[in-house]
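Trying the structure run again after the queue cleared.
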Amino acid sequence: MGFKWMNMLLFCALFVVGAMAAAPKKPMDVPFGRNYENSWAPDHVKYFNGGSEIQLFLDNRTGTGFQSKGSYLFGHFAMHIKMVAGDSAGTVTAFYLSSQNNEHDEIDFEFLGNKTGEPYVVQTNVYTGGKGDKEQRIYLWFDPTKDYHTYSVLWNLHQIVFFVDEYPIRTFKNSKDLGVKFPFDQPMKIYSSLWEADDWATRGGLEKIDWSNAPFVASYKGFHIDGCEASVNAKYCSNQGKEWWDQKEFQDLDKQQWRLLRRVRDKYTIYNYCTDKKRFATMPKECRRNRDVPRKSSKKSP
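Done. Tokens:
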């Protein structure tokens, strides 16, 4: 059976299961300027339909990016993105949260471009106290350049969940009782950018960017933020425990969501730091709690 047909069958199976699973509130689409502002290279951003849709451009002079106007402690953050089409090798489209100090916390989506016809790779990572090294990579089971898809983060005191559309692709549980740091007291801004990283992004840097294909274009809409806004120096959310994302049903995935996550991992994982014995002689403590021990081990390094 061909790769595309296998993807289609898995997608249908995931949809049936996913329809029964609890999910975060549906993102509310708003214009770009409601929540965000350009952060660099404003001449490489185009606005459409009153700012309800924007495009970022990357050429051999510069990429560009934007950031949220506010900083947040916990919440739900979503973006509809259509990725760079064609030969996108060497490009990175990033959507992430980050605090602003030396020992920063960070929650990352990075979409790694590829040669024409090859599947996109999604890399996720979590930084705590300035330290990351928690990379996971999956192939997407659809072409993210054809249509908009929704990429979102649910972050509360109990867990961080990465979603692609309604499907959880990763969870990072609060494991402070195991001595593992968890982002809980550093407000973060939300960022997105399009930039060149051909020294590592595609096949470990083997595939270089082809500037004859420039400009590279990523399209955005949605710009959803539903979070507890806080000053950059705040240590807690003033509404802690009262927001919808704090409630019991969002403190863990339910059985159907765990099943969804397991199917995505088993079919599409290409790298998981939890199984990389060259980097970690002993499996990191948080991996079993996050159920990050795939039934099919991944051997490739990031």
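Residues 1-6, 14-21, 297-302 have pLDDT under 50 and may be disordered. Worth checking whether this holds up in the mutant runs.
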